[in-house]
Design goal:
single chain; 26% strand; transferase; 5 helices; 217 residues; alpha+beta; L,D-transpeptidase catalytic domain-like
Length: 217
């Protein structure tokens, strides 16, 4: 099976960058996140199994089981174990996205938060380790969108873009949740202020009533 061809035909491949290798890696990341697989950008045996099953499954639905949503409106859950951000409306999945998290996963705080600010072309202050970078610059580590979490006032932890596309699907950040730039721009248009955001490991989310069940189960 030629998985690059299949992923393109299924709509996972986008012309995000001039580098086709990065674009195909992004397609793999998106496929993995949509099927609740471990998001790592490597199309190995498990991804092949999922693709084979998916190609035969015309009635595919997201496998999530949600028993205790925080609202019947829109909300977000971030699965640190699988590196998946899911945007829900009540118990229904609207969209799934691959992410990067803290270089030590503990850097990305677990808990129940809300979105307290939304910023286009955010300025990066340097985090005490580098010179600040202007908003809108391709060198900005925050990319072109920022959605701040209520933890520490919305300026310390957030969901944002990136200037290191190969970091998505890894443990790489100082604690924030990174996304593919085109993905976070799409999500940014959907997310409102005060949207609930739950962040936890796979097991913690299950305790809270959010089961990102694998498509292969």
């Amino acid at each position: 099976m030629d998985y690059p061809v299949a992923l393109k035909e299924m709509g996972y491949y986008k012309e995000d960058y001039a580098d086709k290798e990065i674009n195909m890696r992004n397609a793999v990341l998106r496929f993995q996140s949509e099927h609740n697989l471990m998001v790592d950008g490597k199309f190995g045996e498990i991804s092949y199994r999922a693709l084979e099953k998916r190609l035969q499954d015309a009635d595919y639905q997201y496998a999530d089981v949600i028993t205790s949503p925080p609202t019947e409106q829109e909300w977000i859950a971030i699965n640190k174990t699988k590196r998946i951000l899911t945007f829900y409306k009540g118990t229904q999945v609207i969209k799934k996205y691959p992410i990067a998290q803290g270089k030590d996963p503990s850097y990305t705080p677990e808990g129940k938060y809300t979105i307290v600010n939304r910023i286009k072309n955010p300025r990066w202050g340097g985090a005490g380790i580098a010179a600040p970078v202007a908003g809108g610059s391709p060198k900005n580590p925050l990319g072109y969108r920022w959605m701040g979490l209520s933890l520490k006032g919305g300026g310390s932890y957030g969901i944002h873009g990136n200037n290191q596309p190969k970091s998505i699907g890894t443990d790489a950040s100082m604690g924030c949740v990174r996304m593919i730039n085109s993905d976070v721009e799409e999500l940014f248009e959907l997310v409102k202020l005060n949207t609930p955001v739950w962040i936890g490991t796979h097991e913690k989310l299950k305790e809270w009533g959010v089961h990102n069940k694998s498509y292969l189960n």
